């Protein structure tokens, strides 16, 4: 199974793992039962996050969730204006002056786009005249249509007072963009709960908003444990390995919209581990602590030793990889608590734990992207441990349905290279031991997490 047997010996005489651990009794659970516990653990996190909002400049708000309905402070367009470079006309004047389908009006002073005359000095189109008008310029009072310059005779802008030939039959409203025809002042421009897209930000800018109030993000503290763990970028001494787990979990959390802090606590001493964990949790103001490693049956399982008396339960779930798990509200000395999940240390076990437990609960309660699933069929036989749901790394050879599924690498939970080559997780049911080629299975798709599909309310629907 590729499972490791716990931590190295830090050189003490007394094995700290000896004897029963005080505190919460160990559990044995099915995957569904543990998923339910993780969901319950996340409920107060979702409540805490829902109570937080922050104001962000528009571009910083992309991808965030709008906290409250956003009413339009003014209409769009704010005033009637021309859709074309052309001539503002009174269509009734054209009809009155009609001769053989054309009409001749006198050119008034041109109206550029830009600052409008002060209130009370509004431009009015005198009867029998037509005003050269530029795209976006305010329509003069009395005008009810625009004729594009190409349709005039001559097809260019003349000096004021010159005759302009125009079509006699023009529909009222032609090439006029009416005030409020996009959105009227006071109407809801964006609804609370919208995941802000580039297009939403454009609308907010067009309505004059410089900043938007968005929901706070859930905060997670991701902790690597173990004195053999070295952050990437540093050389390895004999017996050491690079920390892959915090990157796996933190990058997945990033993609799901969490505000993530990462800490490596390379101490196998419970008291020191707890002190450093507390300091990191306080400085990040975290909603959830996520650890990896230090929870199975070894003599120096620091996470278990430090936290089992503090409200965190440890036990096993009928899952491979990801069997050892810990979960609870971590009670600090001052009586406050922080929800925490302890994932097993093997990298694939940590990643599978995230995908099986935290991601679905977060999608449900915090609104992050739900993972897609599909029906698949095995292209080769596979064995699975009795009584455990086995999650194998896999590639989809086509989209099916059912998709043809090729398992990648063995079941070992240390196989990072095979994990990197996979784009799906194949779920081999707990009651299956030998699955022949062609067996139907469920697959969990591991595409990069994207925006929540079709979860943004349409503000135009009330
Ligand atoms: N006697 C038993 N031994 C083990 C059992 C068991 O039931 N009985 N379960 C095995 C299983 S399954 C797993 S999974 C592991 C889980 O152990 P821990 O959570 O205590 O993890 P560690 O012992 O700390 O580490 C396991 C393995 O993973 C490597 N590791 C740890 N952290 C990282 C990291 N941040 N990046 C990369 N790799 C990491 C560590 O070096 C070990 O190789 O226990 C089995 N043993
Ligand atoms: O390697 Mo262990 O298989 O559960 O998570």
From TrEMBL:
Purpose of the protein: Catalyzes the insertion of molybdate into adenylated molybdopterin with the concomitant release of AMP.
Pathway per the UniProt entry: Cofactor biosynthesis; molybdopterin biosynthesis
Enzyme class, broadest EC rank: transferase
EC number from the UniProt entry: 2.10.1.1
Reactions listed under catalytic activity: adenylyl-molybdopterin + molybdate = Mo-molybdopterin + AMP + H(+)
Phylogenetic placement of the source organism: Bacteria, Bacillati, Actinomycetota, Actinomycetes, Micrococcales
Protein origin, superkingdom: Bacteria
Name of the featured protein: Molybdopterin molybdenumtransferase
Keywords, ordered alphabetically: Magnesium, Metal-binding, Molybdenum, Molybdenum cofactor biosynthesis, Transferase
Cofactor(s) annotated in UniProt: Mg(2+)
Location of region: Disordered: 1-32
Family matches, as Pfam families: MoCF_biosynth, MoeA_C, MoeA_N
Organism: Zhihengliuella alba
Protein family according to the UniProt entry: Belongs to the MoeA family.
Residue ranges occupied by any MoaB/Mog domain in the UniProt entry: 221-364
Record-linked InterPro entries: MoaB/Mog-like_dom_sf (IPR036425), MoaB/Mog_dom (IPR001453), MoeA-like (IPR038987), MoeA_C_domain_IV (IPR005111), MoeA_C_domain_IV_sf (IPR036688), MoeA_linker/N (IPR005110), MoeA_linker/N_sf (IPR036135)
């Amino acid at each position: 199974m590729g499972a490791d047997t716990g931590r190295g010996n830090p050189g003490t005489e007394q094995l700290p793992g000896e004897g029963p651990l005080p505190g919460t009794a160990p559990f044995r659970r099915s995957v569904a039962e543990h998923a339910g516990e993780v969901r319950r653990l996340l409920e107060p996190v979702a409540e805490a996050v829902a109570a937080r909002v922050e104001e962000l400049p528009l571009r910083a708000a992309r991808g965030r969730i709008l906290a409250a309905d956003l009413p339009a402070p003014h209409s769009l367009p704010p005033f009637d204006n021309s859709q074309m470079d052309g001539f503002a006309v009174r269509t009734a004047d054209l009809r009155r002056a009609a001769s053989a389908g054309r009409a001749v009006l006198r050119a008034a002073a041109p109206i550029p786009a830009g600052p409008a005359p002060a209130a009370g000095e509004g431009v009015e189109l005198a009867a029998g005249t037509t005003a050269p008008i530029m795209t976006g310029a305010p329509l003069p009072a009395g005008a009810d249509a625009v004729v594009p310059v190409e349709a005039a005779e001559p097809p260019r802008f003349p000096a004021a007072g010159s005759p302009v030939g125009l079509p006699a039959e023009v529909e009222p409203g032609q090439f006029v963009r009416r005030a409020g025809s996009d959105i009227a002042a006071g109407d809801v421009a964006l609804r609370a709960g919208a995941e802000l897209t580039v297009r939403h930000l454009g609308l907010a800018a067009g309505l004059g908003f410089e900043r938007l109030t968005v929901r706070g993000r859930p905060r997670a503290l991701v902790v690597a444990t173990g004195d053999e763990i070295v952050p990437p970028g540093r050389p390895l001494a004999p017996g050491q390995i690079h920390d892959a787990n915090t990157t796996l979990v933190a990058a997945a959390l990033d993609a799901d919209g969490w505000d993530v802090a990462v800490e490596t606590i390379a101490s196998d001493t419970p008291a020191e581990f707890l002190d450093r964990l507390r300091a990191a949790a306080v400085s990040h103001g975290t909603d959830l602590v996520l650890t990896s490693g230090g929870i199975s049956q070894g003599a120096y399982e620091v996470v278990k030793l430090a936290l089992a008396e503090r409200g965190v339960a440890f036990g096993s779930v009928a899952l491979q990889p990801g069997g050892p798990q810990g979960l609870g509200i971590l009670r600090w000395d001052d009586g406050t608590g922080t929800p925490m999940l302890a994932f097993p240390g093997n990298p694939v076990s940590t990643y599978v734990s995230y995908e099986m437990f935290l991601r679905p609960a977060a999608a449900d309660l915090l609104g992050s992207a739900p993972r897609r699933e599909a029906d698949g069929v095995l292209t080769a036989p596979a064995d699975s441990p009795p009584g455990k749901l086995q999650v194998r790394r896999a590639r989809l050879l086509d989209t099916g349905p059912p998709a043809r599924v090729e398992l990648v690498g063995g079941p070992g939970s240390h196989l990072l290279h095979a994990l990197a080559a996979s784009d799906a997780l194949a779920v081999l049911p707990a009651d299956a031991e030998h699955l022949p080629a062609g067996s139907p299975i469920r697959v969990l798709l591991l595409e990069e997490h994207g925006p929540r599909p079709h979860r943004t309310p349409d503000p135009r629907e009330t």
